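Predict structure. Chain length: 597.
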Amino acid sequence: MKALIKVGYSCNDHCTFCHTQDVRHIDDTSESVHAKIERAKQLGHSMVVFSGGEATIRREIVEWATHVKRLGLGLGLITNGRRLSDPAFARAMLERGLSYVYLSLHGADSKVHNSLVRSQAFDESFGGVREVHGKVQTLIVNCVVTRANARHLGRLVELLLPFPELTLKFSMTAPKGGGASAFEHVVERVDFVADAVTQAIRHGLERRGDAPGPRFAHDGLPLCLLPGLEELYDDLRTSAFRTMSEVGEPDFFPVDDVIKVQPPPCEGCALRGPCPGLFRGYLECYPEDVTRLSPRADVTRSNSWNLTPTRDLARAPGAPCPVKTDGTTSYDRGRSLFLRLRDRMRLYETETRDFADVELLRAKEEQGQLYLDVSKKLAPDDFSTDLKKLVLLDECRACEARPVCTGCFRPLPLDVFTRDDAAVHALLRGLSGDVLDVGAGEGRYLSSIAPERVRYTAVDPDRELVERLARAHPWARFVTAEIEAHELAPASLDHALVLRSYNHLVSPRLVLERLARALRPGGTLTVVDNVAFGLLRDRRQAAAAERGPGRLEHRRNDDAERAHAHTSGLPLSLVRRDDVGPTTSNQWLLHYERTAP
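Prediction complete.
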């Protein structure tokens, strides 16, 4: 895992879009950088990456690189590449373990590139590409797409085609620093950039064919605007950066995307997890561009993520908390936690891209949906025995550092799944009359339905499952169909059930409308489903599960609040609502009564 150290903001280029335009006079001290290198080692990082400004113009850069190598860490640079064009300097950095280079090149010739960086830099920057290509493990050439170069991306692709061991990345201009002060002159409209990047990448893939050639990536663009290229998204997290430290900061902080936002239309998108959304500054200038987004409902997403152990902190019983004394800022509150063991605290972390940061933080801190997997299975199938719910330690609840600390948890000696599911079984035991079950699944609730009182029909698109249930329950009627296509006569049902199938529906509002019309006055609609949850697993178990054959079937991970919002305006009166929270399982329940027409 990489730690990013900003050593200062001075630079030998003067980019029109420079993030740090207003602080170029500020540099960190050599002593501070040395201390941060040692702190990165202490935190368990495997690589230190220097950035700026331009880190390579600091006279101490070779000394810092030597210190990194002495500590057994890998070495990386985020750079404009100019000094790397000097063979002696490049050799010195390679001898000290340089293996990761993120190099800026914004045009295929001096006219375009130099106009953007406002220096005579093209020959040196491109020289840096030639000098380290094939000599480092990772070489990423980053092109910031602006109004000045958006129409010339194909030429940059052609320039770099002879370099098969690099990745050419196209990044949307961030409205920060120069990108903010000269926004209207620098920043191109997002849909135009997405089209230009799509054309450039597809051109490169076509020209490369089956022959060795550069890989491609993009950043800062909503994934819905790049159909077919979603998997090429790249940012600090996908490149295994865990923490970073700006000039003047006393410690490391988690890498984040706080300058980007996912506006309301993105909330229901199945690509929300890996998607960067839009830059906040961009959206403030072009709020109407949310209409250019096309949230995706045609793909599925996960409803859980794995957290795996990374390191232990010794802590004897009764000893003070080592996190509180050592520093809390380097831990990502949404992506990490400590598990309390007898004589230590074990750090668990996740690198998942299946969920947006706000989703992870809410699931952990608000909903409390974290579980220790004790099953050793690829996928737990009996939550009541396979999973142990985690709760925050009492001392953490009372700690003044809690608002900024990731927290320490312990297993709860209680089967919350069976307890919460009892409410569903109780409702089902009281049913009588005509019942429609949307998505019967494995038939887990059929044991609570009384055949002598109920005329039961289940609709499910899985033919094999339907046939198996029909053989096991000859008293019931099973239909192979999508509920959206199944005929529903008005006022023909006494009860409708959507049990753990709501988050699988393509169009939940449409289905709820149809069910409301099909219910007789006084009839009931019961909707039950789960929110996403985190699983603490060992590395081998998590890796095997992620390589396994499991299918992703959820189209969303709505909670009770969001699902209830889809009933707005329908002739349904809410009778009962069970929300997910820190003391519950991940299951929620909504129970409605059909009102009179």
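Summary: Residues 2-292 form a domain with the TIM Barrel fold (CATH 3.20.20.70).
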